[in-house]
Design brief:
This protein has helices at residues 26-35, 122-133, 147-152, 180-190, 214-226, 266-279, 281-288; strands spanning 4-17, 41-44, 47-57, 62-71, 77-78, 86-87, 96-105, 110-114, 137-141, 156-166, 194-200, 230-237, 240-245, 252-259. It is of the alpha+beta class and 296 residues long.
Length: 296
């Protein structure tokens, strides 16, 4: 295959873990996987998934690796035009592999995640880690340049919020807040898999409060952290009406690399994620509220 410039998208999330026992944070969990104390392979969300070739790096303090999904059933057919197709045959124990490259940075427990639509999501990584550690792990997007702060500001009036969320496959992945249990009961009670929520004011009603209460903002923030596919608010700020999107307005970059394969070598992918990490410094500073030394 000839060399060509390819596009790779890198998103950033914060991994958090509910400490319990010997594992106090995600760093401890990854170190345990490297030592072999925790399994690196597990059945998760209907596929065998694996944290592969996980490596500790000193500068910056981080772990680099791959999260691989193995597909062993409903395989595609192969063939040429004008001829019958044949089933793809795999040897025993083999599977079609889709992978996501990632780098976990200890500072702020950030993970830079290479997006592969056929692979896994950070939420599926957090589910995997929850299963192998026995402790609840979450992956939360990093809102870009204080989008969450803008939403929660006291002078920002919310007129409408919308969110789309799916029923979790792992009950341990539920958030520890006032909304998780209630949300799960609503979906389970009607046998649903996905729920779309839209809450708004009606300015034509004489008894309308004219704005949504602060709990509406808390609800939207909780759903965004939980893994909602949409989480959007229509707000009025300083007399100007505009949207705040907690999903679209999150830290992500697009990188370009020449390669004669689907992906360049792993070191090049990790260097690409590191470059995205450096380029997003201002967004991390805005979100975490720290100074020039936010990154190592």
């Amino acid at each position: 295959m000839p060399m060509q410039e390819r596009e790779y998208r890198i998103d950033f999330f914060q991994l958090t873990i509910v400490a319990n026992g010997e594992i106090g944070d995600v760093q401890d969990a990854l170190e345990a996987i490297v030592r072999g104390d925790i399994p690196s392979v597990n059945a998760s969300d209907g596929y065998t998934r694996e944290i592969f070739n996980l490596q500790h790096r000193r500068r910056p303090s981080s772990f680099a690796g791959q999260f691989r999904k193995f597909r062993t059933s409903d395989l595609p057919e192969v063939g040429i035009t004008g001829a019958q197709a044949s089933e793809l045959e795999l040897m025993e124990g083999q599977g079609l592999i889709e992978r996501n490259f990632f780098v976990y940075y200890r500072q702020h427990s950030l993970i830079g995640w290479h997006i592969n639509g056929h692979g896994s999501t950070p939420k599926q990584l957090s589910t995997f880690l929850t299963q192998v550690t026995g402790q609840k792990v979450r992956a939360e997007p990093i809102p870009i340049r204080g989008a969450l702060d803008r939403l929660m500001a006291g002078n920002v009036v919310a007129k409408k919020i919308t969110a789309t969320i799916a029923r979790p496959t792992n009950a341990q992945a539920l958030p520890d807040d006032d909304y998780g249990d209630e949300y799960l009961r609503m979906l389970s009670g009607v046998g649903g898999d996905t729920m779309h929520i839209a809450i708004s004011i009606d300015s034509r009603r004489g008894d309308s409060a004219g704005e949504l209460g602060h709990k509406a903002k808390d609800l939207l923030r909780a759903f965004a952290a939980f893994g909602a596919t949409t989480a959007r608010a229509e707000v009025i700020e300083d007399g100007i009406e505009h949207p705040i999107d907690l999903i679209l307005d999150r830290v992500k970059t697009v990188q370009y690399e020449e390669s004669d394969a689907k992906y360049p070598p792993a070191p090049s992918m990790f260097a690409m994620i590191d470059r995205s990490h450096r380029e997003s410094r201002a967004d991390f500073e805005a979100h975490f509220g720290e100074g020039d030394d936010v990154l190592e």
